[in-house]
């Protein structure tokens, strides 16, 4: 005879049900847990009972969601994708016979790394983070826009899916009928060349993308697996916000070096290098990056023994960093000076600094201190001297220093007063200062016009110093000084207005270099944001301008004359082709001097 104690049995069942519900809730919490994008996340072991029946990659990023065209390949084929270029993938998903509300996410795997949840972060200007691969927005459709049955592999009833734009999850879906249905989901994605970390995606890296359900269980079925391409001349990353020189610098082997940041959301120092004439780039000595980051105001200069010296201003101090290229006899491709304090100071309205090198090996740095400018000198094997002011009669305050060392060791200084005037002084070899001389009067007073003076250049054959600057009418002008301390009257040198402070770049969108008796200027036109170039050899004639980089939304441009590359000498230019202040659009261009 079996005696059943009803109350006890019901209590046991209640405990079991509570335990099962707790397990399910724990699984949901684990699957939804937000961690750093760069870390693999916990997923539940078994596969989902829903499955992917097919996928298709969309090449035309601007194509309407339900147009059956613009595909990159046939069903279930994943062609290579280009870094920093958004693309789209459409999945057809088939449900099982379980009747409940579904919600899907994406995971990705790079090479043989663990699977990682894919978050939603904008490109090229993210608000929070810049992961290697993320879901981004797409103007061709809005989040949740209904998606028709374009793939049509499943034989189950087709429900409306959706387009996924800048969201880590799909809208909820309850299949109709209860016996099961199919729906399509199209995601807008991007793979970044540089991600927070910093992390670098290399040419040929392989990526896989899979769908997972709300419990973190992967859906079975075909998985997009593809390699990535890095276009020739593509750097990616983020420009440094400075009107001074940052490269590209060249050593005697023809290796190129450039200072930049990896992403807008990870503002650390990087020295990137190219050994193939600017076709491909990679970071060097990542383990020893300078400790002080926030690269908003810096200048740099390269010594004959292959050291790039950097003056770097942050809010309340200016620092000296130095990087030894492979030309250096002892330290090759290494950071050799890390965040050496030059001076503490009152926070300036705009961070700005420049540095130059004398023939005797001493360094001279000029930087903002409050609304004034200070300078400091580092003698060989010495310490940085106590900072001194460049004060004179103007009470408006000063900014935008540009330095140039003449062959005899005299330092040319050009800078701007906040009332829109351009000034010039010399720091003589005995470290005394000449009296200030005004060379421009219309450089603007608005915040957008804060940095109007380009890097100074010197024509060795003519023994002439050249100052190029943007006046408040938007055009570039040039003044020159052959002897004494007096500049010529301004000469207009651009045939169209030039952008200034594009996406908070704190500078006129232009660059200037000298070669033999020529001045070469590249600039970003205000009207179309394309890059133009002009070459000047006759100061009495308005030069012709030609388009060199069309169809971009340019923000920055920096260059140098390079002597050891193919077809040398060349004007090597690095420019931002439209990041809108974010990252991913830095590119390299080489222009033969003889053809300019």
Textual characterization of the structure:
This protein has 596 residues and is mostly beta strands. The longest helix is centred in the first third of the chain and has 27 residues, at 6-32. The radius of gyration is 29 Å and the shape is elongated. The chain has two domains: 41-229, Sandwich (Immunoglobulin-like); 249-595, Neuraminidase (6 Propeller), CATH 2.120.10. Strands 1, 3, 6, 7, 8, 9 and 10 form a seven-stranded mixed beta sheet that branches. A five-stranded mixed beta sheet has the order 2-14-13-4-5, with no helix packed on it.
Helix tally? 1
**Termini Cα gap:** 106 Å
Residue-averaged pLDDT, rounded? 91
Low-confidence runs of at least 5 consecutive residues? 1-44
| Name given to the CATH homologous superfamily of the largest domain | Fucose-specific lectin
User: What's the overall geometry?
Assistant: elongated
Task: Determine the structural class based on helices, strands and strand pairing.
Answer: mainly beta
Biggest beta sheet attributes? 7 strands, mixed
Calculate Rg over CA atoms: 29 Å
What is the CATH topology descriptor of the largest domain? Neuraminidase
Estimate the helix proportion, in percent. Answer: under 10%
CATH class of the largest domain: Mainly Beta
Tally of discrete structural domains: 2
The total count of strands amounts to 41
- Estimate what percentage of residues fall within beta strands: 35-45%
| CATH-derived architecture of the largest domain | 6 Propeller
Helix-strand layout with pairing:
Layout: H1 6-32, E1 51-58, E2 81-82, E3 87-94, E4 105-110, E5 116-117, E6 133-135, E7 146-147, E8 157-158, E9 161-164, E10 181-191, E11 194-195, E12 199-200, E13 206-212, E14 225-229, E15 249-250, E16 256-260, E17 270-274, E18 282-283, E19 297-302, E20 307-314, E21 317-324, E22 334-344, E23 353-357, E24 363-369, E25 372-378, E26 388-389, E27 398-405, E28 411-417, E29 422-427, E30 437-440, E31 457-459, E32 464-470, E33 476-481, E34 491-492, E35 510-515, E36 518-524, E37 531-536, E38 545-549, E39 557-562, E40 570-576, E41 586-592
Parallel strand pairs: 2-14, 8-10, 9-10
Antiparallel strand pairs: 1-3, 3-10, 4-5, 4-13, 6-10, 7-9, 11-12, 13-14, 15-16, 16-17, 17-18, 19-20, 20-21, 21-22, 23-24, 24-25, 25-26, 27-28, 28-29, 29-30, 31-32, 32-33, 33-34, 35-36, 36-37, 37-38, 39-40, 40-41
């Amino acid at each position: 005879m079996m005696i059943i104690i009803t109350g006890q049995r019901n209590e046991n069942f209640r405990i079991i049900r509570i335990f099962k519900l707790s397990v399910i809730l724990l699984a949901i919490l684990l699957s939804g847990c937000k961690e750093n994008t760069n870390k693999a996340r916990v997923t539940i072991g078994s596969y989902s009972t829903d499955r992917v029946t097919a996928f298709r990659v969309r090449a035309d990023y601007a194509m309407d969601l339900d147009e059956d065209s613009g595909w990159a390949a046939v069903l279930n084929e994943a062609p290579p994708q280009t870094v920093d270029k958004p693309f789209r993938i459409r999945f057809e998903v088939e449900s099982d016979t379980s009747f409940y509300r579904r919600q899907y996410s994406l995971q990705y795997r790079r090479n043989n790394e663990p699977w990682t949840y894919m978050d939603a972060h904008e490109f090229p200007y993210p608000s929070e983070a810049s992961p290697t691969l993320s879901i981004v927005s797409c103007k061709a459709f809005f989040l949740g826009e209904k998606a028709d049955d374009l793939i049509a592999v499943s034989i189950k009833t087709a429900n409306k899916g959706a387009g996924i734009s800048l969201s880590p999850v799909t809208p909820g879906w309850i299949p109709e009928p209860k016996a099961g249905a199919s729906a399509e989901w199209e995601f807008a994605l991007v793979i970044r060349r540089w991600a927070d970390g910093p992390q670098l995606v290399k040419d040929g890296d392989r990526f896989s993308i899979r769908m997972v359900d709300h419990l973190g269980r992967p859906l079975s079925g075909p998985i997009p697996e593809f390699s990535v391409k890095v276009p020739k001349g593509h750097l990616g990353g983020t420009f440094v916000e400075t009107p001074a020189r940052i490269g590209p610098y060249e050593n005697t082997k023809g290796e190129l070096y450039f200072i930049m940041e990896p992403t807008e959301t990870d503002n650390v120092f990087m020295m990137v290098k190219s050994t193939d004439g600017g076709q491909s780039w990679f970071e060097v000595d990542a383990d020893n990056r300078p400790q002080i980051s926030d690269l908003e105001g810096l200048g740099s200069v390269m010594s004959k023994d292959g050291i790039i010296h950097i003056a770097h201003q942050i809010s309340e101090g200016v620092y000296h960093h130095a990087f030894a290229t492979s030309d250096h006899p002892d330290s090759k491709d290494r950071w050799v000076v890390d965040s050496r304090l030059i001076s503490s100071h009152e926070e300036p309205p705009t961070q700005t600094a420049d540095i130059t090198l004398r023939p005797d090996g001493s360094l001279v740095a000029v930087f903002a201190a409050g609304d004034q400018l200070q300078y400091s000198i580092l003698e060989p094997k010495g310490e940085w001297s106590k900072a001194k002011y460049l004060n004179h009669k103007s009470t408006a305050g000063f900014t935008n220093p540009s330095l140039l060392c003449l062959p005899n060791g005299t330092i040319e200084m050009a800078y701007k007063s906040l009332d829109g005037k351009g000034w010039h002084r010399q720091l003589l070899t005995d470290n005394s200062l000449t009296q200030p001389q005004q060379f421009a009067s219309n450089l603007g007073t608005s915040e957008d016009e804060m940095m109007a003076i380009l890097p100074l250049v010197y024509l060795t054959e003519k023994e002439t110093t050249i100052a190029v600057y943007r006046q408040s009418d938007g055009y570039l002008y040039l003044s020159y000084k052959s002897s004494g301390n007096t500049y010529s009257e301004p000469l207009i040198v651009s045939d169209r207005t030039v952008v200034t402070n594009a996406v908070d770049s704190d500078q006129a969108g232009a660059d200037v270099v000298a070669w033999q008796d020529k001045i070469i200027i590249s600039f970003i036109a205000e009207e179309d944001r394309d890059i133009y170039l002009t070459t000047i050899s006759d100061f009495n004639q308005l030069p012709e301008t030609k388009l060199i980089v069309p169809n971009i939304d340019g923000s920055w441009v920096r260059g140098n004359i390079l002597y050891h590359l193919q077809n040398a000498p060349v004007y090597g230019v690095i420019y931002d082709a439209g990041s809108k202040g974010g990252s991913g659009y830095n590119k390299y261009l080489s222009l033969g001097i003889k053809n300019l």
